[in-house]
Every structure is written in structure tokens, then in C-alpha cells.
């Protein structure tokens, strides 16, 4: 069986060119002039709608299109080392994101530089239905078919990223949005890197991210034969299994445990227990889905399935669901 995502070997010339473009833009904290957009106005510049670790999200309009505007939280006219780092991070995110075009990826509209003094903002369409967790909260009795459809679309989006040699790096429910047509849109590429292989060393990174969705080799690289933190396609696959649990239960993996306890549990080889029907919105967690999740949680990154295989399985499960 095959997915709708094409495949070709890693380390292609186009991938190297994309990687070089991102590296140059990050090093010099610039983006190409064609990325800049004008005619963006905010509905309220004083109060963000929501926010993340280093940015606030405002609502606005690009012409007549409702958009989300992501603004750096730490920035000023006098640049500190941390502010320069965050600016480079935003430029990197813009340069990675603008290369990605897929039905299950949130579109990149451009960079606005005239909304706030001395601040760059990333602009994307507004996700009318919120993230995948809040979306399901508004569907108190989801069907098995709906659950599988959402998980299939997440897998398709991740498979496309991996085809481009891009590792998402922060796959979790909060970064999986739902558009007005009820389609999954992966978002937030602030931790994305370029992969060098399926599970081998990639771009050296750091342990930023969310502990409950983090593969063991990102928690303690030395224990797993790495000398530094490397996000890979295999760490995305591990996080995908965590997303499956999150979608089925509405709760994050290891719900109720602090990050310190999650860290120790994962390094001991423990994984979230199989949830009951009651914990799964009254639906039985199918053996096939649980098998996919446990394989994605394999402590050996090389033994985790390719996300294209996962998408194939979810596509078939969706078609066969009642």
C-alpha cells in the first residue's frame, strides 16, 4: 500500500539548497524581500488572543482574509543577545515554513514588519475551529471514523514534511489546527530542522519542546548514543503516537505528572498505559491503533515505523470504520 505522499531518497540537491537558504537567513536574521507583506491590520493590537513560549498570537485581516499574526514576545529597539536569538529563530521559522505547501499544513502568508515598532510578525490564515484538542472538546461524542480521519490527516502532513527532509520538532495537539472546512493543518515550525536520515544524526538542536511528547533520545542523548540533542524523523514518529493518545483521550500523555516525573518514567522505558473505553470518549481504542502507537514508542529510534507506513494504516482504518 502507498500513501498520496511521494517518496524519493534523502540528501537531494533541492533539499541541500533549501537547507542552505534557511541557514543563511538564520545567520543574518533576514528573510527574502518577497516574504514581506503589507495591508495587514489587527483587530486589537493591545491584547493577543493566545500565546506560546516566545510569541503572542493576534487576530487580524489581510485584505478580507481573517489571519493569525505571530509576534515575538521579547523584542525592543535595543537588541540583546537573547532578542537577537529569538529574531533569528523567527526568521528560520519563516524560511522553513514558506517552503511547505500541502493540504494538511497551515499556509504561510508572509512576514509583516509594520504592525509593531521594531518587530517582525509571521502571518497565517486564522484556524476557525481551533486546535485538534479543543475541536474534539466541541464534539462531545465523536465517531471512530472522525478520530481516524483526523489522525490520518496528521500522518499525511508529517509524511509530507519528512519527504521534504523537514522534521517538525514540536508535534502535539496545540500545534495541530483545524480549518473552517474541518481539515487538519499542522502549524508552528519554530523547532523544525532538516533531517539527515531516517533516525540518524540530524541538525544539532536543543531540548526545547514539550516533555510529554518527547522521545527518550531527546531527553538523554548520551544514553542513546548521541553526543547532543538531535531532532529526527523518528522523534516526530514518537510524538505522533503521543498525539494519537491525546486525540483519543483529550489529555496529554502522562497526564497529572510533572515534567520531572515524566522524564524519569520515559528513561526507565515506561510509556502511557492503554486507556480504557471511558477514558477514550466512550470509544474502544482499537487493537490496530494501539499497536501503531506502541511501535512508534519503541525506545530504539531505528525500530519505529516510517510515518508513511503509519499513514497507510490509518487510511485503511478510516475507510473501514463504522
TrEMBL record:
Entry keywords, A to Z: ATP-binding, Kinase, Nucleotide-binding, Transferase
Q: Which InterPro entries match?
A: Kinase-like_dom_sf, Prot_kinase_dom, Ser-Thr/Tyr_kinase_cat_dom, Ser/Thr_Kinases-Pseudokinases, Tyr_kinase_AS
The Protein kinase domain covers 43-322
Superkingdom of source: Eukaryota
Q: Does the keyword Coiled coil belong to this entry?
A: no
Q: Name one Pfam family in it.
A: PK_Tyr_Ser-Thr
Molecular-function GO terms, alphabetical:
ATP binding; protein serine/threonine kinase activity
Q: Which PROSITE patterns match?
A: PROTEIN_KINASE_DOM, PROTEIN_KINASE_TYR
> Is Cell division there in the keyword field?
no
Q: What is this protein called?
A: Kinase-like protein
Q: Which organism is it from?
A: Heliocybe sulcata
